[in-house]
Amino acid sequence: MFQVDRFQNRLRKLECVSFSELGYREREHLQEWLAAMPEALCGSMSEGEDGLLIIQKEFDGFDGTRERLDLLALDKQGQLVVIENKLDDSGRDVVWQALKYAAYCSSLKKVEIVGIFQQYLDRNGGGDAARTICEFLGEDTLDEVVLNDGISQRVVFIAANFRREVTATVLWLREHQIDARCIKVLPYRFGDEIFIDLQQVIPTPEAADYMVRMAQKESEEKSASSAQSLRHTIRMDFWQRALDRLRADGSSRHHNVGPTKETWLGVGTGVSGCSYTLVLLKTLVRVELTIQRGSTQENKWLFDQLHAQREELEQAFGATLEWHRNDDQKRCLINISEPCDGFDKGQWPDMIAWMSSHMRRLEAAFSAPLAKLNQRLKAGEATGSGR
């Protein structure tokens, strides 16, 4: 740190000293400075975090322990902030100590937090805790205030020097979305004057917003992955039950088929590239004939030949079918759907019964026409190569 000598247009280096050299103590001095002016901490943090309300110091309200945390605060989101102060060296156990305090504080309810703050105010000049909290958070009444929600308590470590084991642990905690921070506090001497410099070093203010965004992104990805895993598990369970019913109803095509995590389950029709397919979606189940050979020309030919028999096929099936030639795609579909809540297990028996019944009807209606068309395909009729 330097002082500007405006008269000589020069910089004068300030002497960086230790707290012990100056005779300053942790509780008597550093703790009192920060309790009286929490803005000193906020100025070292990233933009948008300019607010801490100290609600207690030397807090010892932990059942069954004699431990005391240095400072307890609220941030602008109503979350508790555990502040651990050290002087010239962080020590080895400060992280473990602070995490214990954060764990203890995580169960504090709104009424307890207001009471803790009221005790602090009563010992330090008085005031109304509830009103002060409302003013700090910008709320009109305490009823509208949410305090200490979830597990988002923050931990702030303050020291002139942080040991490697401390910084490594804090970085690891941040990777696991625990808001732990290190703020370096250094005393400087210039003549008879003493200056204190506080700088957030983990994370650096410039990197804090980026790290928050990355943590949010990772959380979203984990959530999406977890949701996907759950959907896969549900589908596997559904398809196993559906296969059991299909086999019980006499479907030989499904004897050697296993459940899948996909939304669809298909079996062969006897025509290459064509399958009888069951589909499970969130809002419906579907039974369909899928025509998806390697040749678009053959797919369209097969579809057109079946469509020419639409009246007879639907009569044999016993219901109106949906016909999708899909001119902009290779695949063609002929299907029927039933609305439902696909992930409601209470509806599964009816859904599976509907699938089994309609699949058997689809096979009965289309098996013979497909077999005849397959002979014409082999003869090259679809591509005009037959003789």
UniProtKB/TrEMBL annotation:
Q: Residue ranges of the DUF4268 domain?
A: 234-368
Q: Which GO terms describe its molecular function?
A: nucleic acid binding
Pfam families the UniProt entry points to: DUF4268 (PF14088)
Q: What is this protein called?
A: Uncharacterized protein DUF4268
